[in-house]
Amino acid sequence: MKNVFSFLLFTFFTFFVININAQINDSEDEPQLNFDERPDPIPQNNTAYVDNIISFAKTFLGTPYISSGASPTGFDCSGFVSYVLGNFGFDIIHSSYGMAEYGKTVKLSEVKPGDLMFFKGSNASSNRIGHVAMVVEVDQTEGIKFIHASTSKGIAIDRFSGSKYYVPRYITTKRLDYGNP
Predict the structure, then answer these.
(1) Strand order of the sheet with strand 116-120?
(2) What pLDDT shows up at residue 170?
(3) What is the mean pLDDT of the chain?
(4) Is 148 a catalytic residue?
(5) Active site (annotated) includes residue 94
(6) Which of the following is catalytic: 50, 77, 117, 138?
(7) Which is deepest, 64, 81, 131, 174, by most CB within 10 Å?
(8) Which residues of the chain have pLDDT under 50?
(9) Active site residue 181
(10) What is the pLDDT of residues 16-37, one digit of tens each?
(11) 36-175 under CATH 3.30.1490.20, yes or no
(12) Are 84 and 144 in contact (CB under 8 A)?
C-alpha cells in the first residue's frame, strides 16, 4: 500500500510540474504586443501622455464624418473618441451618452487638454447628450479648442469659447484617469 501511495504521489507531482512548465512555455510563444504599432503609451497621469493622445487624434484631421463610423475610413463623434482612446488601452463605449458616465466632472474653468466635453445633439432644446469632443488646447486668448467629428467638416478642431453653436449646447465636461487605462 505504501508503494502505491508513493507511486501516485510521484505521478501527481510529475504531472503537476510538467503542466506548469507547459503553461510557462506556451505563454512565451504567445505573440507579444508590439508598441511600435501603437502610439507611445506612457502609463502615468501627466501632460506627455495626454499630448500623445492628442497628437494621435490630430492625425485624423480631415477624415470624413460617417454616421456610426469608428475607423479611419470615417468617424462619428463617439466612434472617433473611442477609437483614439482605444489605441491607448482604454475600452470605452461607442456612445456619447454612455461616455458621459466615465470620469470625473470638471468645471469649465478647470478644463484641461484631454478632457471630454459633452453637448446636446442637433436639437438645442433637448437635454440629452448627443455629441462628444476632446479638448486639445486651453489658451488665455482663444479659450478652449476641441477635436471632434463634425457632420460638415469631418474630424476638425473648433473653438468652444464664443461659439454660437456649441456654447448653448454644452452640457458637461469629464476628466478621465489617464494613469489607469
Answers:
(1) 104-105, 170-175, 116-120, 129-139, 143-150, 154-159
(2) 97
(3) 80
(4) yes
(5) no
(6) 77
(7) 81
(8) 2-45, 180-181
(9) no
(10) 334 434 444 443 443 343 334 4
(11) no
(12) no
